């Protein structure tokens, strides 16, 4: 879950408690048809990233619950809007009973993991049988985990806009996000690209990230990725365990690593600096920590993190 795992400082649309789609909406979502018969009035964001998007679309009055709220803090500008929204689950998805207790009519999830019945969560089929519509972030679909892109978020925004009848607010968020990505691309035009490896450290276990939205984030940030989807190690999964010797041999100019809290960041920095003291990334102080929440599928963090990494890699370009 940590490898799968705050938003960017964008505006919040005016509250729209009554507006809604005039007709049923049917969408292709993760290989299934998602049918929403009417604009939801009791939605649940299954991760803070999804709760944030609903809040920014002006839908605070139509949120019945916020799940996994302890996994990530909401941005300061939208957190007050969620103050009275019931919290279900802590750092993990809620149980089937806890989710159904808030009587949702719509559930918006970052991945399909949140519907693993074997873990005690409500499956998509169980929710649909209970009359609850389900939407999974496009980048969180199983068939997109290896090929996900930052712009998958825009598909989600368009779809959520249709479902809730807030198309204009969704279009506004998309426009601002596209403009942010365009600014980064313009700033990076002509730069000499640095070789960058993305890794994840858990104790002394070292993993390389070479596919999925993580790869696309580095690409948009101007990196020459050390690890790519074309390499055999990432043919079936976006991460692969590697040896320190293999990473040292690549001599990357920068290392990007995701962390879930300050303690994890400190431990990861200590491991990287002591294990690779002669690596260019360490010598040039290009150890770039990013929040694990920002590489989670379907989050505005996917956009803001592109600029964050690009500014660390090429400070003179900004």
From TrEMBL:
One family name in Pfam for this protein: Peripla_BP_2
Coiled coil: none
Cited PROSITE patterns: FE_B12_PBP
Domain Fe/B12 periplasmic-binding: 42-317
InterPro entries: ABC_Transporter_SBP, ABC_transptr_periplasmic_BD
Entry's family note: Belongs to the bacterial solute-binding protein 8 family.
The protein, known as: ABC transporter substrate-binding protein
């Amino acid at each position: 879950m940590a490898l799968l795992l705050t938003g960017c400082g964008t505006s919040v649309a005016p509250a729209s408690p009554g507006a809604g789609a005039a007709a049923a909406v049917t969408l292709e979502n993760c290989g299934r048809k998602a049918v929403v018969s009417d604009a939801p009035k009791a939605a649940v964001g299954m991760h803070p990233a999804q709760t944030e998007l609903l809040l920014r679309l002006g839908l605070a009055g139509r949120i019945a619950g916020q799940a996994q709220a302890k996994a990530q803090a909401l941005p300061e500008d939208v957190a007050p809007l969620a103050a009275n929204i019931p919290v279900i689950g802590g750092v993990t998805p809620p149980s089937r009973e806890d989710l159904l207790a808030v009587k949702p009519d719509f559930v918006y999830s970052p991945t399909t993991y949140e519907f693993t019945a074997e873990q005690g969560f409500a499956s998509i089929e169980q929710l649909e049988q209970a009359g609850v519509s389900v939407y999974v972030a496009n980048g969180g679909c199983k068939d997109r985990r290896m090929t996900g892109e930052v712009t998958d978020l825009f598909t989600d925004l368009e779809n959520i806009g249709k479902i809730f009848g807030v198309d204009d607010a969704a279009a506004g968020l998309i426009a601002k996000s596209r403009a942010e990505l365009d600014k980064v691309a313009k700033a990076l035009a002509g730069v000499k690209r640095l070789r960058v490896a993305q890794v994840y450290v858990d104790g002394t276990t070292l993993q390389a990230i070479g596919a999925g939205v993580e790869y696309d984030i580095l690409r948009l940030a101007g990196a020459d990725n050390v690890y790519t989807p074309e390499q055999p190690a990432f043919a079936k999964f976006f991460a692969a365990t590697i040896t320190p010797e293999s990473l040292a041999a690549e001599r990357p100019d920068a290392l990007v690593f995701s962390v879930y809290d300050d303690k994890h960041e400190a431990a990861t920095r200590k491991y990287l600096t002591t294990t690779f003291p002669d690596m260019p990334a360490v010598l040039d102080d290009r150890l770039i920590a990013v929040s694990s929440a920002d590489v989670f599928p379907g989050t505005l963090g996917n956009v803001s993190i592109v600029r964050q990494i690009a500014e660390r890699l090429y400070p003179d370009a900004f």
